[in-house]
Amino acid sequence: MATAGKVIRCKAAVAWGPKKPLVLEKIEVAPPQVNEVRIKIVATSVCHTDLYHLFECEHNNGFPIVLGHEGAGIVESIGPGVTEFQPGDKVIPLPIPQCGECHFCKSPKTNQCVKGWTAGSSIMLALPDSRFTCKGKKVLQFAGTSTFSEYTVVRTMAVAKIDPAAPLDKVCLLGCGVCTGFGAAVNTAKVEPGSTCAVFGLGAVGLAAVMGCKSAGAKRIIAVDVNPDKFEKAKVFGATDFVNPKDHNKPISQVLAEMTNGGVDYSLECVGNVAVMRSALESCVQGWGVSVIVGWTDSSDFAARPMQLIAGRTWKGSLFGGFRSKDGVPEMVKAYMEKKVKLDEFITHTMTLDQVNDAIDLMKHGKCVRTVLSVCSQ
Ligand SMILES: NC(=O)c1ccc[n+]([C@@H]2O[C@H](COP(=O)([O-])OP(=O)(O)OC[C@H]3O[C@@H](n4cnc5c(N)ncnc54)[C@H](O)[C@@H]3O)[C@@H](O)[C@H]2O)c1
Ligand SMILES: [Zn+2]
Ligand SMILES: [Zn+2]
């Protein structure tokens, strides 16, 4: 590879500050260091967590940064000590790593890894760990991935090698949203056959949760969203009932309780709103109802009556759908190739990296499910 060992100058969308449009810049991407690979990003989609960082969380020290964490690409070069990857391998960079050695990775009880950013509760790579510079300034990497760039450097513990036949402009969705929603239903809620489920929020994460409930054998899947344009898609993934909270003048938990003889067996919050998290919990049936928080927020506390839990409900959270990232993502790619999970149906728009601000606007205004941006040609 002509570029191996050299700094690559390439295009990336840089977020210089909160609530500002991203700027297409030439950035420098340093060669990979020990146990890192440099990846040419072929396709990336936009997830709401990118918007959360840009618009919603109040980080002052989170910029400049290259966002994007739902991508797929090809290994361009490998750092010293890397034997697991070769240039040319098709890969998905992973927002959470799987080092395989820590006490979390060795426990069957969690998919988290002590080397992940959740340990430090920051979703950015520390500045010394970022391989990006722009105009003489270090630029942060987001979720250890930063896929809104033609090239990015990722730790091998956060890279999944995938089937070389997989279409990168589709399987990029498995880098975050689809694994997250699907796994939240299957791995975290452990939805049982014949059960009744409710999914709050019908973005890609919620629709993937609907798909997960269906694949686990749920009999009834109630799709809840304040944007009724989302219901048609939800039907495609297996939803059986549709509720717009704006159509009712009583609490949504009461509406669902009346529809289901006291509440649903499983509810999944895929919005990132603490009031909706409470509603989702209260929509579960007493005795055994399980509610899973999937939506992302770290800026406010939530509240609930203890009696809700005392009465036998369980409240859980799910990171990356409970999947161990390096093991789970190639399996989900395989499931897609075998037509056991859908991906194409999530993609409502395709654009190029230059149009990333348009893609962000679409999501902000609820006009898309997933927009896939093509970044580099293969
Ligand atoms: N836990 C994780 O590992 C993880 C991973 C990825 C994304 N997320 C989070 O999941 C959430 C969903 O992500 P997405 O990309 O699907 O977002 P999205 O913006 O595409 O979808 C959110 C949906 O929620 C709906 N909504 C908004 N307010 C609502 C309300 N009060 N009641 C019902 N529905 C409402 C919107 O209309 C929209 O359809 C975000 O918070 C994101 O940050 C979490
Ligand atoms: Zn680990
Ligand atoms: Zn995401």
Automatic annotation (TrEMBL):
InterPro entries: ADH-like_C, ADH-like_N, ADH_Zn_CS, ER, GroES-like_sf, NAD(P)-bd_dom_sf. GO terms for molecular function: alcohol dehydrogenase (NAD+) activity; S-(hydroxymethyl)glutathione dehydrogenase [NAD(P)+] activity; zinc ion binding. SMART domains: PKS_ER. The keyword Transmembrane helix does not apply. Keywords: Metal-binding, NAD, Oxidoreductase, Zinc. PROSITE patterns: ADH_ZINC. The keyword Cytoplasm does not apply. Residues 17-373 form the Enoyl reductase (ER) domain. Its cofactor is Zn(2+). GO terms for cellular component: cytosol. Belongs to the zinc-containing alcohol dehydrogenase family. This is Alcohol dehydrogenase 1. It comes from Channa argus (Northern snakehead).
